[in-house]
Amino acid sequence: MGTIVSEAKRGVIPDIVVEAARLEGIDPDRLRGMVARGVAVIPYNSSRGRKLSRVVAIGERLTVKVNVNVGTSTDISDPDLELEKARIGLRYGADTIMDLSTGGDLDYVRRLLIKELDAPIGTVPIYQAAIESMRRHGSIIDMSEDDILNTIEKHFRDGVDFVTLHCGITYNALESLKKIGRIAGIVSRGGAFVASWMLHHGRENPLYENYDYILELAREYDVCISLGDGLRPGCISDANDLAQNMELLTVAELVERSRRMDVQCMVEGPGHMPIHQIAANVALEKAVCRGAPYYLLGPIVTDIATPYDHIAAAIGSAIAGLAGADFLCVVTPSEHLGLPLPEDIKQGVIASKIAAHAVDIYRVGEKAMSIDKAMGEARARLDWITQFKLSVDPDRASEIHGRVKARSGACTMCGDYCVYRILKRFYA
After folding, report:
1. Helix axis angle, 171-180 to 242-260, nearest 10°
2. Average pLDDT over the chain, rounded to whole?
3. How confident is the model at residue 323 (pLDDT cuts 50, 70, 90)?
4. What is the pLDDT of residues 359-375, one digit of tens each?
5. Residue 148: how many other CB atoms lie within 10 Å
6. pTM score > 0.85 for this model?
7. Could you write out the three-class secondary structure of the chain?
8. 58-59 and 40-41 beta bridge pairing
9. Which domains, from first to last, does the chain contain?
């Protein structure tokens, strides 16, 4: 049996494409063609036969999707907490989960999430390769190429649906980074692991050099590759510099190689970027990567929003989505401060979902707009139960409304002077 892409290229519509098209409300053959061209992906490791109730299609003119990161750290390592966070993320509208664990039993956490969740699961295999090297040898730089490649295959074999791989960091890009004098340097953790190995050994990126082999593995397990932005800007002053764009051009080459091998592929984008540069960045990625789905962390539009980076990211996400970005990674209030806890996950997901939905009103029209129309009608009727139900956070909406009992049946903002009561006969 071939991959989702190879089947789509032959004109066959795999069951997973049929289901994704149903959820999107589009013709299955249209989605098949998008997958065949590489402008849409459906992360799904078909080698394991795992059943997903949340089939997710990401790409051109589809609804904007949201990913939430969970994962242990060296300071807080509780697999059950990470599972709880993942479930909260899905409850409030996340479409996918990524495990970024760095503490405790990494295999156990990943396998627990895959076993317990029915949504697509992503990982960053270089984390585990580097951490296990640190545990065995006392340093990240002592990991071998085989360690890296074997870890990638282990994640594929366990059933992950997509992986972030920092393949686009070349030695030339690192040299340019030295010359331009960034403020924040390399802020991608995976990018830092790869770059430290390259600089110590004086060698090219092993992920780049072994990309054809990685594609063979991805094709065998039918895993979607997410090409990581290891040289992404870590503050808005560093945005759109030479190193970032050199990496993007390398990634564009890797996208084409993935398509030739019938492997699904998407591209990751920057975390920090001034608001006026976002649309141009999205347009550049879509041009050089020929429409490959674009996956963005934020972008965070100002560096002073701590601990409200979820709001700064939602602003950037809405602009990026309007410009054509397809997939948003949740930023939580704890970004830059500490490991997110369940309430942080909830707030981050809600902010990202609001941004995604705002874009979808433009992107897919009535399908997205219908819930807003229903909310408007419920408000005009002073139908509080329906308003709570349609809210992104029903419990919080109900709690705020009920803090003080309104005498008028409206809310305590306008009370007796509620416009809907004054003009009631016009809204009957």
Report:
1. 160
2. 96
3. very high
4. 999 999 999 999 999 99
5. 23
6. yes
7. CCCHHHHHHCCCCCHHHHHHHHHHCCCHHHHHHHHHHCCEECCCCCCCCCCCCCCCCEECCCCCEEEEEECCCCCCCCHHHHHHHHHHHHHCCCCEEEECCCCCCHHHHHHHHHHHCCCCEEECHHHHHHHHHHHHHCCHHHCCHHHHHHHHHHHHHHCCCEEEECCCCCHHHHHHHHHHCCCCCCCCHHHHHHHHHHHHHCCCCHHHHCHHHHHHHHHHHCCEEEECCCCCCCCHHHCCCHHHHHHHHHHHHHHHHHHHCCCCEEEEECCECCHHHHHHHHHHHHHHCCCCCEEEECCECCCCCCCCHHHHHHHHHHHHHHHCCCEEECCCCCCCCCCCCHHHHHHHHHHHHHHHHHHHHHHCCHHHHHHHHHHHHHHHCCCHHHHHHHCCCHHHHHHHHCCCCCCCCCCCCCHHHCHHHHCHHHCC
8. antiparallel
9. 46-364 (3.20.20.540), 371-426 (no CATH)
Token digits of residue 378: 């419920």
How many residues make up the chain in this entry?
Answer: 428
